[in-house]
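Sharing a chain and its predicted structure for anyone who wants a worked example. Both blocks are below, sequence first, tokens second.
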Amino acid sequence: MSPLSSTSTEVDEQRQQWAATLADALGNGYLDHHIIPGSDLWVRVAKQSWVEVATAARDQLGCTFFDWISAIDWLPSPYGRDMNAQEDNPAQDPSETSKPEKTIEHGHAGGKTRFQMLLRLHSISAHMGINIKADLPDADLNIDTLIEVFPGANWHEREVWEMFGIHFNGHPDLRHIYLPGEFEGNPLRKDFPLLARRVKPWPGIVDVEMFPGEETS
């Protein structure tokens, strides 16, 4: 998709202008965008343009309200939800226990890597927000800190570092928020085994008590 195109035939001129402004500011660092007219805008940029796009959104779009930073791991869980949940094993033959191979599918504005950074900003005067994404290669899970642009990013970046194992270059104080210092692993990665699910059935997967009058199989 062209950086200046939209996925809808309905035109949202203000969000189209925001996309065009960022595309001009970032050049080759601007990769793609997706607009839901009257609702929202997603922009995907190169990892190297992460600080640049946040600065342009603040200074050129008026997005002075920092909402949050997070990350997403698009890898389908290799563990499913356990208990042979039907959602994870849609085979028609009940005796068939193999599960279909799952591939990574990205959300709005696409992507090319398992991990992506996510940033949400708002313009209070324009009453509009923007979602900004950046691909992170598996072998290079680091990105520059946004603290100099939005000081409130400090805590959010610490959480992403702790939960996903993504390093923030230039962050002055990367340390644990929730987990003990000796904890190993990153719990929000899809391949992190949630042992509690294997020790005790996960709520919503186990059989529940039938309502009066319902037949049991």
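Comments welcome. Residues 83-94 have pLDDT under 50 and may be disordered.
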